[in-house]
Amino acid sequence: DAKTTQPNSMESNEEEPVHLPCNHSTISGTDYIHWYRQLPSQGPEYVIHGLTSNVNNRMASLAIAEDRKSSTLILHRATLRDAAVYYCIHHYGQNFVFGPGTRLSVLP
Amino acid sequence: GAVVSQHPSWVICKSGTSVKIECRSLDFQATTMFWYRQFPKQSLMLMATSNEGSKATYEQGVEKDKFLINHASLTLSTLTVTSAHPEDSSFYICSGIGHPEETQYFGPGTRLLVL
Lengths: 108, 115
Hints:
The complex is a heterodimer of chains A (108) and B (115).
Chain A: E1 9-13, E2 18-23, E3 32-38, E4 45-50, E5 55-56, E6 61-64, E7 70-75, E8 84-92, E9 95-96, E10 102-107
Parallel strand pairs in A: 1-10
Antiparallel strand pairs in A: 2-7, 3-4, 3-8, 5-6, 6-7, 8-9, 8-10
Chain B: E1 4-7, E2 10-13, E3 19-25, E4 30-38, E5 45-51, E6 57-58, E7 67-73, E8 76-81, E9 90-98, E10 103-106, E11 110-114
């Protein structure tokens, strides 16, 4: 049963980097790690995903541990618009299971 | 990125009526679509997985006769809440998978309020 664990909430100052951790100890070889974020009253927005190697895109970076049992989403410079609930998802087959996520607050 | 739309964005209905929510993938073909429900301050709960041209697979505890899902084409899936009751009031969100990325793209959600 795929399960991820994340801190309930985190706080960051504006324009500082944010590191959002996620544990996915049940992950196996071909399972992807996906990150989404959700603003109030909106559908989740895709952020980034990866398999083994670290990944970068215009929104964020994803650092995946060597044993793949954990990963970290990195926002390089947090803005007020980054305040959202961030979900780390362990994707296998057609299964995307959402955990409770991390509520990120960004302080001006 | 891929775009998914939902219609309506919000709906208010009387108890006992049926409500249909449409989910469309606008710029990609979604062979698989998902329907989620989200209550206030909670995470998304998967209701069902829908593959084009076949019957939906419902999660445990979700009544298939109450939540009718039709995925008639590669760009459209519908969820019908039959005989809605106040406890069905929630935020309903659909998503589609675009191949070969295997990434889910979510719609903006539909807020349902049953009086």
